[in-house]
């Protein structure tokens, strides 16, 4: 399989999905019978994580994925970061999450892909590569 390259165009759709999921999580926490202080602390944590997710959503602008699991991701500054796809990438027709670890880093990073953000053919090829790639 040849490498896949795509340009990422984040829109309000992805932000709306992340916001709705954070809101739904907050509603579940609010409805859970916990002590008031613990519920407030968990709600604050959910809000903080949701804000971080919204902030980092548009962090990447390009993606190159090779058949062997090698990945290069371009940030907003135009700097390409090389790494390796990790176990835990998630593939559905309407949502794809590329989990990867940059070379020399201790922690994994993620790239969220939604239909409409990427060329349809490139989106299909990324999903196929992630389904068949064995980290």
Q: What does this protein structure show overall?
A:
Helices cover 40% and strands 27% of the residues. By secondary structure, it is α+β, with helices and mostly antiparallel strands. Strands 1, 2, 3, 4, 5, 6 and 7 form a seven-stranded antiparallel beta sheet that branches. The longest helix is centred in the middle third of the chain and has 21 residues. It starts with a strand and ends with a helix.
Write the layout of secondary structure elements.
Elements: E1 4-7, H1 12-31, H2 36-56, E2 60-65, E3 70-75, E4 80-85, E5 90-91, E6 96-102, E7 109-113, H3 120-132
Antiparallel strand pairs: 1-2, 2-3, 3-4, 4-6, 5-6, 6-7
Helix pairs in contact: 1-2
List keywords for this structure.
single chain; 135 residues; alpha+beta; 3 helices; 7 strands; 27% strand; elongated
Short description:
The protein is of the alpha+beta class and 135 residues long.
Largest sheet: 7 strands, antiparallel
Instruction: Determine the number of helices (DSSP H or I, runs of at least 4 residues).
Output: 3
Low-confidence stretches: none
Order of SSEs, N→C?
A: EHHEEEEEEH
The overall pLDDT average reads 88
Number of DSSP strand runs: 7
